[in-house]
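Training component of the fellowship. As part of building independent skills, the fellow (R.M.) carried out the full modelling exercise for a liganded target. The chosen ligand was succinic acid. The inputs are recorded below so that the supervisory panel can assess the work.
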Amino acid sequence: MLETGRIVIAGAGLGALYAALELAPRPVLVISPEPLGEGASSAWAQGGVAAAMAAHDTPEAHADDTLLAGAGTVDPEVAAMVTRVAREHIIDLTELGTPFDRDADGNYVMSREAAHSAARVVRVKGDQAGDQIMQTLIAAVRAAPSVQVLENTQALRLETDGEAVTGIWITRADAPSAPVLIKCPGVLLAGGGSGGLYAHTTNPPRIRGQVIGFAARAGARIADPEFVQFHPTAFDIGEDPAPLATEALRGEGAVLINADSERFMVPAHPDAELAPRDIVARAIFAETQAGRRPMLDTREALGFEVQTRFPTVAETCARAGIDPVTQPIPVAVAAHYHMGGVEADMQGRTSLANLWVCGEASSTGLHGANRLASNGLLEALVYARNAAQDIDRLALSKDAAEVRLEFPEGGQELDPAAVKALREAMTAHAGVRRTAAGLKQALAAIARLEDDQAADENFTNMCATATLIAAAALRREESRGGHFRDDFPEADPAQAHRTRITLDEALAIRAKVQEELT
Ligand code: SIN
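Fellow's submitted model of the complex:
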């Protein structure tokens, strides 16, 4: 055990690094599972950051679109606050050096994405927003003496006194080791979502719900875990994770077709390819299930320009031997974003004292049942700053020695077969379309796998989040946004509210299911 005066930030994506800079000169310790910049979901974001920057646009219109996409469970006060401050964060990121795309007059170039009533997504080099913002933040963090980064380490468990967090257990991420307890004045969780709990995902390989899982195990209340967003257009080229074909392509006029060259979104929704993401995802899923091979066709809308305006997409096409100028791109749905997470108030405070959360690990009420495109990075920025300001009120010392760690031998390698089985169970039974029978099978499978791997705490954390998703999905007997129940296909106005659940409650649902199935 060792003790530090530093705030510990678990995670090293956009929210984590932005918060670390906001907290300067207060000393922080960033727990980064990989070398900085590698393996964070934020760096993989292609679209950009949603913000009403255009002259004709307003935060109110942005908030209205957020509410509409969220399918009845967005917190309107949260949407109003986040969209109001969006502009100042874009300006701050610009001042830090983010090379946002500008037109000849210096105005931000805005992309259009689904369910936005205006072109409202600031972008970098077409489809490289996440990577470029991260490069900017990494350079600033490297230059900030108050920020210590521990690369190749991961958080495993929170230490509490029952009500307040008093420390965090961390371990090596690149090799097995026994965990070490760091006692600290506070912890900010910023370690991403849960996409990798599914067999098909756009998330980096290490993002498998661990942060939500260990917070839930410590007793933090979880909100909306059943709401998982599936991206409609992940490349279907056999790669894991599946590369993204950004929604901005559809914003530029790319269309969805099937093997019979039918534009199946036209009869499905008045906004066709730009319908809310959950609707497009279910339509793509239906085409895949029916064996009609859905594809994204950029040929007419972009022609040769796809190469220069969407370099990341073009690079993936080249790797897969697809020429997007002459061929449509095969696509499939993939778990992309978790609307649910550790419940956070407007300051990023959780239900446990001395524990804050920002980014995809959190559930703030902004996304409701279906996140509006490019509101994810925005939420991470806003709550990283809000949480940092709240933490700042602790008036901690501005001096803290560097943390020096030696990890004892021990620990355990993740069992890849168990991880694969967990991901397959989630995709088969807690995915795009759900039923009570399937969700019960998922819960039973998670319990079995968790028992088999009881000695591996990292895996236990994944199972905690998987249990929360499946249990809350079983409890919500209706369809709303990203949560679709074949046995309850309509939205029920009486259930138009957020879910709050603890891990104990989810485990009780799981135990009841196990009893029923034996
Ligand atoms: C995309 O570029 O399609 C993804 C944007 C997002 O998930 O917000």
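The panel noted the following from the submitted structure. The pocket of succinic acid is lined by residues 46-47, 244, 246-248, 336-337, 373-374, 376 (CB under 6 Å). The mean pLDDT is 96.
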